[in-house]
Design goal:
alpha+beta, Protein Transport Mog1p, Chain A, four-stranded antiparallel beta sheet, 18% helix
């Protein structure tokens, strides 16, 4: 769907998905490592030491759904999908793209921390997902800063 390009420490989406995701040094585009089968996945970043991976998916508009409903549905889906799911935090946050739902959880058996950011902007819903080792506090801080930087150009469209 969308081509992305790297521009001075930021991953920039195309006109079809006009997002900007800023990232610190030590992260690089990894679109060639996107899992097959999900056509909505449009971009990825990988930490060069292999301790972090972030994907960006662009989905359709959320219709008639409140942030509370999105949050509840997301949590139910995670609990159903992972037997070792342990919630850390799920809350609305303000980012440059608008109000988003931020979710962080641990997959206990694998020792992985997963984070998700879901934000609806006009006709699109952007979902950012991150995976990192549970002991990588430095990577968690970088992911939090990246999520906080997420913006969408031409937010009306």
């Amino acid at each position: 769907m969308a081509d992305t390009r790297e521009t001075a420490g930021a991953l920039v989406g195309s006109d079809d998905a006009p997002f900007v995701l800023r990232h610190p040094p030590g992260w690089e585009p990894a679109g060639d490592q996107l899992p097959a089968g999900d056509e909505d996945l449009v971009a990825a970043l990988r930490r060069t030491d292999g301790r972090g991976f972030v994907t960006v998916a662009v989905r359709g508009q959320l219709l008639g759904t409140t942030l509370d409903e999105v949050q509840d549905t997301l949590l139910m889906g995670l609990e159903d999908a992972f037997s070792d799911f342990e919630l850390v935090r799920c809350q609305p946050i303000r980012i440059p793209a608008g109000t988003a739902i931020y979710t962080s959880y641990v997959l206990v058996d694998s020792g992985r921390v997963q984070s998700n950011l879901t934000v609806a902007v006009g006709p699109r819903t952007y979902q950012l997902d991150a995976a990192l080792p549970a002991t990588a506090d430095d990577v968690a801080e970088e992911v939090a800063a990246m999520f906080a930087s997420f913006e969408v150009r031409n937010a009306a469209g």
